[in-house]
Design brief:
The chain is built from eight helices and 13 strands. With about 260 residues, it is an alpha+beta fold. The protein has two domains: about 140 residues, Fructose-1,6-Bisphosphatase, Chain A, domain 1; about 110 residues, D-Maltodextrin-Binding Protein, domain 2, CATH 3.40.190.80. An eight-stranded mixed β-sheet has the order 2-1-3-4-5-6-7-8, with helices on both faces. Strands 10-9-11-13-12 form a five-stranded mixed β-sheet, sandwiched between helices. A hairpin with a 4-residue loop joins strand 5 and strand 6. It is globular and about 50 Å long.
Length: about 260
């Protein structure tokens, strides 16, 4: 049994309370499918509402911390050394279509380093959390480790496809061509935070994607590292949070995947 620290407990509380509202709203989404605009507006409102819940709980627990949220952007605090990085609803398109694969992601950055992370899927009650130097955990009992597979041909990788209005389709197709011929499978599940949490849990052997926001990946990057894996930008550097490109896998597969992505040019 793993006992979360006071800090992690606050983050879990915020994610779960936001998740309660998201679960209720998720139950209503299917009723709104008759009106495309109505459903999309409803999901945007659910997103904003969830972020407000997280914002209020974190602000009360740690007044003065800076807050970066997908919806409200940057809210400067008096404490410049700490910054919350929050995606209240990662996997919005899944949510909109009634697919139960979405999450609230909360990370805390201290002096530019992510030190605590929580990712929670309210549809499945899957809770992932990690603290720098203390490991990565699933719910309150299981310590997570990245998968032990070392051969590309045995690996299942996750990725994201640039969607409507996003650049990078040609690049993605080249990368997919390089990767898909050499692995057991490629999955596209539509929530970057959960993709990273699943790498940490050993469900996926690796994950790569470009064009992400810091809120999509901040929590998951720490989880992969704390589960014994390597999380970097696609070039192997440490700019993932600012560049929005990410590659995560175990230590053996990481360089192999990076090599194939480089071959894509």
């Amino acid at each position: 049994m793993a006992t979360p620290s006071t800090l992690i407990a606050v983050m879990i509380d915020a994610a779960r309370k936001a998740g309660r509202g998201l679960s209720r709203d998720f139950g209503e989404v299917s009723e709104l499918q008759v009106s495309k605009k109505g459903a999309a507006d409803f999901v945007t409102a659910a997103d904003i509402k969830a972020e407000q819940v997280v914002f209020e709980i974190l602000l009360k627990a740690r007044p003065g911390y800076t807050f970066l949220g997908e919806e409200r952007g940057l809210v400067e605090g008096t404490d410049k050394t700490h910054r919350w990085i929050v995606d209240p609803l990662d996997g919005t398109t899944n949510f909109l279509h009634g697919i139960p694969h979405f999450a609230t992601s909360i990370a805390l950055e201290r002096d530019g380093q992510v030190v605590a992370a929580v990712i929670y899927n309210p549809a499945t009650h899957d809770l992932f959390w990690a603290e720098k130097g203390k490991g990565c955990f699933f719910n309150n009992e299981k310590r997570l480790r990245v998968a032990a597979r070392t051969k590309m041909e045995e690996a299942v990788l996750a990725t994201g496809i640039p969607f409507l209005g996003k650049p990078g389709h040609a690049q993605f197709l080249k990368e997919l061509h390089q990767i898909s011929q050499r692995v057991a499978g490629v999955r596209r599940f539509g929530a970057a935070s959960l993709d990273l949490a699943w790498v940490a849990a050993g469900r996926f052997d690796g994950y790569w994607e470009r064009g992400l926001g810091a809120w999509d990946i901040a929590a998951g990057l720490l989880m992969v590292t704390e589960a014994g894996g390597k999380a970097s930008d696609i070039e192997g550097g440490d700019t993932a949070l600012t560049s929005g490109s990410v590659l995560a896998a175990n230590m053996e597969l990481h360089p192999q995947i990076m090599e194939r992505l480089r071959a894509a040019g």
